Amino acid sequence: MSNKRPLMGTDNILGLQDNGYKSTVSAISEIIDNSIQAHATNVDIVIIRNTTRESDEIDEIMIIDDGDGMDQNIFDKALQMSSGSRSKAKSGLGKYGQGLPNSSISQTKRVEVYTMQKGKILYNHIDLNEIYESQQPYLPDTEKRNEIDIPIFKSKKLKAPETGTIVRWVNPNKVKPKTARTLATHIEQIAGRTFRYFINGFKDNDGKIYKCNINILVFDFNGKNYEPDNFITKKNILPFDPMFLMPATQMNKLFPESSHPTSSIFDEKIKKEFKVIYNNEKVKTIVEIKLSYCNKKERDRYGRNAGGEPFGKKYLNRNLIGTSGYNNISIIRAGREIDYGSFGFILDASESTNRWWSAEILVEPVIDSIIGIDNKKQQASQIQFVDNQTSEDYDHHEIIRWISTFLTQNIKSVKTIIELQNASSNGTTAKGKGKGPKLPPGGGTEPGNSGNPGANPDDDEMKKVKKELFEWIKERYPKLKDDEIWEIVDYAFSIKDCHIFIKSDLGDTQLYSYKVFGTKVLIEINYTHSFYKRFIQGFEEDPSQEKSLRSIRLLIGAMVNAEIVNGTDEKEILKDRRNIKNRMSECLEDYIEDLYAS
């Protein structure tokens, strides 16, 4: 008798196709995982399209690699559910060992597998219809073959590798999208992103280097012959990096006019070591986080509304298909992307800066259960924003709390950099026409007065006041050169307008602040305040809203002037005024949040 291996029950066998894979590309990615783990240097994804049918249906999909192949002991388990050979692996892509059968039957009722090693060919298959009709929940015995019994190989349009594995999906019935052209595009976009590190070359914790080319080969079958579709075929697909830090990626082809990479690393990537229990053993593991932000010069290259241009839209969708909202954070497990999203760290989706920053969390397989990585490697469900005020009420693992704290602090910092860049790119002259010396970054002017408009300081007093303004600007804009600052100072005192408006980060409370320099009043507007983000920023970006922008500046200028004219040295009065102004700003923030609450 043959050594039959139970596969599963038969009553609902056809229902196993609905096993939770997000897409055809996700299912293909599972097979690519196995190929890379088997040290493949090339993975060919072959799509065969039947041109005898009006809809050009896909007849079969094959994933072919030139990796190590499998001996009979491993191959006997390869098509069994939940019977992988790496269930306790601490590193590498593998661990669960369910990728081949689960992903395959999510797309087709019949999967055939050939594996080649040392001149030997082994073959087996799963056919859901056969199992359902026979009511025999067993895998067939592994067969030894003398050749690859697949028509396209017999036609010599494809050559099988001497060692490696061929996974063939016959008449796949769950493929989406259904057309070869669109499917090939999806594979290029998603696989290029998912396996970006392996396309470039990835060194694991054991020092092994995995580097793999991914090719998409499309053939037309007219009932007799196979012909390659060279237009859709994509050889050696480029990686796509949602951090926008890698050179030589798909972005180079899409935006050749840009300097690549188009983003910069924020500070330095942070690594933290944790001790966790894995397989009843205490082990050390490293979690690494890094952030990036789009370079100002690249955004400026595409105009004031860069976010609405194809460049900005690519930063928004990041090669993802069928998603909405922001997906700035990428989870990388052993070099392979597992999940992406905002994970609750984007609290205000209306902030334009959200488009331009990215984050990446790199983890090892030993913490899969802690961060919620499932056996299909499609999500990290436990990664989330943890509110420090309520975190003690929940049993969050220390790794989750650390990730949340680190991301919360650094996302705010990187957004501040972007906001400052925005401010510096919106500098205007007193007339707002961009001619002549610029004011402090993001500046504008209004008439107003300093509370002492008739003052006429002598030369020594003017030098002193100008020096004070110079030091004030230098402290806040350290990247400006001294001669640039002096040009700003001289220009500020040469114009008739007395109120000079700039944008600053004033923290969580104040809407505005001011300082008097002789006959000039420098008024800082808090660009982190909701009132700025919801109203003033929109007016600044839309030239047709100049009257609205000036109205707000005049209103704030009048409030500043009232404080100056009614100046006092009494501490209690000054304290009350600060409290009133801060309370006004806080109420305004609360009202806006209520107004725009979803």
Summarize the structure.
With 598 residues, this protein is α+β, with helices and mostly antiparallel strands.
Describe the structure.
It is a single chain. With 598 residues, the protein is an alpha+beta fold. It has 3 domains: 5-228, Heat Shock Protein 90, CATH 3.30.565; 250-422, no CATH class; 427-595, no CATH class. Helices cover 33% and strands 22% of the residues. It has 17 helices and 21 strands. It has an 8-stranded mixed β-sheet. Strands 13-14-17-15-16 form a 5-stranded mixed β-sheet. A hairpin with a 2-residue loop joins strand 15 (329-333) and strand 16. The longest helix is centred in the C-terminal third of the chain and has 28 residues, at 398-425. The radius of gyration is 31 Å and the shape is elongated. It starts with a strand and ends with a helix. The model is unreliable at 426-437 (pLDDT under 50).
Distance between the first and last residues' Cα: 66 Å
The CATH architecture classification of the largest domain is 2-Layer Sandwich
The SS-based structural class is alpha+beta
Strand content: 15-25%
Q: What is the CATH level 1 assignment of the largest domain?
A: Alpha Beta
Count of discrete alpha- or pi-helical segments spanning 4 or more residues: 17
Using the alpha-carbon principal axes, give the shape.
elongated
